[in-house]
Each structure stands twice: as structure tokens, then as C-alpha cells.
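Z., the sequence and structure:
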Amino acid sequence: MSKLPSQQLRIIGGQWRSRRLRFPDIDGLRPTLDRVRETLFNWLQFDVEGARVLDTFAGSGALGIEALSRGAREVVFLEKHPKAALQLRENLQTLQARNAQVWAGDALHWLAQHPQPWDLVFLDPPFNCGLLQPAIDQLTLLPGAVVYMEHETALTLVIPANWYERKNKTTKEFCFRLFEVQETKVPGTDTEK
């Protein structure tokens, strides 16, 4: 199998399977590896179709585009770097993806201004920048929502008590983890919130 040039990614499955898309050569931009995306979307096989998806720190858009290819109802991409946001818009136009929008700006600012629930959230910020915990803290999610995160192995996070970890894998350099938001029990009662 030949290796892709460093500024291309391949869609793994769905309606755009095997399509190749370009992304800019920007320091710190690292699309989720093919093998990791394949594992992730195997984990998500019942969670993507019809989902409202938020791809924070989108970069190349590999995760959100993969979700669109597999039947997501809508994807909002958040990307701060102007070149990456522009290329992402061009790629979505090439694919004729009408159910997607790109917000070119700071993801944390956007999350603070748009406290709305999502079915599926991708959290894959640049490593060693201190962005993941603030993003987790700002999310508004309903029970049943699914959150994927990718982060450096050494990072310690405070995960909300009602997030159940469904799956995870760890390498020397990074972890990738899948959580599902559970009902929250009200302390001292048998009722759920």
C-alpha cells in the first residue's frame, strides 16, 4: 500500500469512501491517522447516522467529513487557522456537502457563545496547548451524547462524573477515548436529571 503525501487525507468509509482531500501544511495540524479513524468509526457505527455533530479544533476536518460521509445529519466545524478553515470550506464544496458549516475562529469562544446540545462531539485540539480541559468544561450535552477525544498520553483531565468511558486506546504518544453522557442522579434521591 502506498503512503499518502503528507498534505492529503483519505476518507475511510461511507458515500465518499476512498476520496482524497487536501489540507494545508500548517505546524501542529495532524489529521487523525487512518487506522485510528477506522477504529473510531467502528466504535461509532450506531452513533453517526442522523447525528448532529460538532468537530471542534477541526484542522483538516478528517473526523467531521468522515461523519458526513457516514450519514451525519449536520456537522459544524470549528477551526481557528484561516488557511485550514479555507481549505476545509473548499473540500466541503468539492464534496457538495450541504449539511455542513465552517466557523473560522476560536473554538473555546464559539463554545461559550453557543451552549447547545450535540449528539456527537469530536475534541482533538493541538497537543500541549491546554485547550482540551476548557473545551470539556464548556460543553453542554444531553444524556446519550457521545464525545470522542484525542490527547497526549501524559495529560491529566477532569472528566465530568456523568461521562461513561465506552472505549479507549493508548499509545506511547497519545490516547483516544470515547465517552457517552449518562443521566445525572440527584444526590439523596432516586430521581435522575
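The radius of gyration is 16 Å. The CA atoms of residues 17 and 129 lie 32 Å apart.

Let me know what you think.
H.
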